[in-house]
């Protein structure tokens, strides 16, 4: 994908609005009226005169492509006209922060038909309401400012717009895919930089700084999520957050980190040897996880049931752990007893977009089947969706020890062989995959071939 060329255009807000309107009309036949959304409002840090870090509301961004605070948008469902409202110039603010985006600049930058100041919101709503006596204003609960009135609209609907945007976001436009590809390209360089430095640092926090610094220098000042920089046994903690432990004496580093670019996320995990050479045990586990990922990606295409792909990952994990002697017995019995969950406790992946764990996955965290309880996507995959494929095998005392005490599971685990693998910590490999009608496309270019990673780390 030539994402740089695609990104020279405008974010396709009106295309997204049409998709949302079509969804609403599938639920509310002959729906007429307007969609109304607000951006995130600027807010001061408590006991401070600076603003909190700003993160745009994803619902608003989806219909505007606008990353400014204190804005509003109205989309007319019947005329397909989109009006963006931006803050007027505040002389006091200009003294400190410079001139804001002008009406003319906003009109040129965003895929909207008209740009007005926020002081015109109520008047515009009233005018449209009078023109549409049977119209409905569609908005999201708790995301409407107190001063905004829908008095001229006889009908208000606060139930369907949020759902419509969440469902619409699952299938990405070409521009959205280009944004995710750009975030991946930036993250590729940052992951590579960490690999090149991992053998020469003393603490995990140094590598987090390397990753973030590379992203900022490349034009991505925000991370898609809090990075996981886990050395040694810390890699067995799925969402390790400390990132401040010494590196000395540890085998591997698990780096789960991804840049955000113009509100779109990347989500990438790599696991590699700190000294440039996998131990026998680490390489054996890495090869199992690598096969889990490659084989799962190979079966992806439109209409595939994600539950089945997750099940495939567990079957491959069981085969690999049996071959190493960590598991023992009949593989079908191990699968039926769900003993592999001790080593692969999380779901295979999740939708990706403006949120790292993007909308539309319909998880069932109340599922009594432990193998599927944490699967963030349930159901079939549509073409145009982006999903992470992130299998892992972990050696976490807290998770595994209860299995060792349970006769149903302990009969399948060789505790003596297991002792050789605790220092491996955990291995996870994660890529961002676009589902197509006939297969898939991988947006993640960060290096994961084990021999190539060893070569990079060793400086060969």
TrEMBL record:
Keywords: Aminopeptidase, Hydrolase, Manganese, Metal-binding, Metalloprotease, Protease
Record's catalysed reaction(s): Release of any N-terminal amino acid, including proline, that is linked to proline, even from a dipeptide or tripeptide
Job of this protein: Catalyzes the removal of a penultimate prolyl residue from the N-termini of peptides.
UniProt cofactor(s): Mn(2+)
SUPFAM superfamilies xrefs: Creatinase/aminopeptidase, Creatinase/prolidase N-terminal domain
Superkingdom assignment: Eukaryota
Any GO BP: proteolysis
Family of this protein: Belongs to the peptidase M24B family.
Signal peptide range: none
GO MF annotation, one: manganese ion binding
InterPro entries assigned: Aminopep_P_N, Creatin/AminoP/Spt16_N, Creatinase/aminopeptidase-like, Pept_M24, X-Pro_dipept-like
Species of origin: Lasiosphaeris hirsuta
Protein name: Xaa-Pro aminopeptidase
EC number: 3.4.11.9
Record domain Aminopeptidase P N-terminal: where: 11-146
């Amino acid at each position: 994908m030539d994402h740089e060329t695609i990104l020279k255009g405008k974010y396709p807000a009106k295309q997204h609005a049409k998709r949302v309107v079509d969804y609403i009309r599938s639920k509310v036949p002959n729906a007429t009226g307007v969609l109304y959304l607000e951006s995130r409002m600027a807010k001061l840090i408590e006991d401070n005169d600076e603003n909190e870090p700003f993160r745009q509301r994803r619902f608003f961004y989806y219909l505007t492509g606008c990353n400014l605070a204190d804005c509003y948008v109205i989309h007319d469902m019947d005329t397909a006209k989109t009006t963006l409202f931006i803050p007027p110039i505040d002389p006091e603010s200009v003294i400190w922060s410079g001139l804001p985006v002008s009406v003319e600049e906003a009109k040129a930058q965003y895929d909207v038909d008209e740009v007005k100041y926020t002081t015109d919101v109520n008047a515009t709503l009233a005018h449209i309401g009078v023109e549409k006596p049977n119209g409905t204003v569609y908005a999201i609960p708790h995301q409407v400012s107190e001063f905004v009135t829908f008095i001229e609209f006889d009908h208000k609907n606060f139930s369907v717009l949020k759902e419509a945007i969440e469902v619409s976001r699952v299938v990405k436009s070409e521009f959205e895919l280009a944004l995710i590809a750009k975030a991946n390209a930036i993250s590729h360089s940052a992951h590579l930089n960490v690999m090149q430095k991992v053998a020469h640092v003393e603490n995990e926090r140094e590598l987090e700084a390397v990753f973030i610094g590379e992203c900022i220098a490349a034009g991505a000042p925000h991370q898609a999520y809090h990075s996981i920089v886990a050395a040694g046994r810390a890699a067995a903690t799925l969402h390790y957050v400390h990132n401040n432990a010494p590196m000395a004496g540890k085998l591997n580093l698990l780096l789960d980190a991804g840049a955000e670019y113009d509100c779109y996320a990347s989500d990438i995990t790599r696991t590699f040897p700190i000294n440039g050479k996998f131990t026998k045990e680490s390489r054996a586990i890495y090869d199992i996880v690598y096969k889990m990922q490659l084989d799962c990606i190979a079966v992806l295409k439109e209409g595939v049931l994600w539950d089945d792909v997750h099940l495939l990952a567990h079957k491959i994990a069981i085969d690999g752990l049996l071959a190493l002697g960590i598991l023992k017995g009949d593989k079908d019995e191990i699968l039926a007893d769900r003993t592999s969950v001790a080593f692969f406790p999380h779901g295979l992946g999740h939708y990706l977009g403006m949120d790292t764990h993007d909308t539309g996955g319909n998880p069932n965290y109340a599922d009594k089947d432990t193998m599927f309880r944490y699967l963030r996507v349930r159901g079939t995959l549509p073409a145009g969706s982006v999903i992470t494929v992130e299998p892992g095998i972990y050696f976490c005392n807290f998770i595994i020890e209860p299995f060792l005490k349970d006769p149903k599971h302990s009969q399948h685990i060789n505790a003596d062989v297991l002792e050789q693998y605790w220092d491996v910590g955990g291995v996870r490999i994660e890529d961002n995959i676009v589902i197509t009608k006939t297969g898939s496309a991988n947006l993640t270019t960060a290096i994961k071939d084990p021999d190539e990673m060893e070569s990079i780390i060793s400086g060969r």
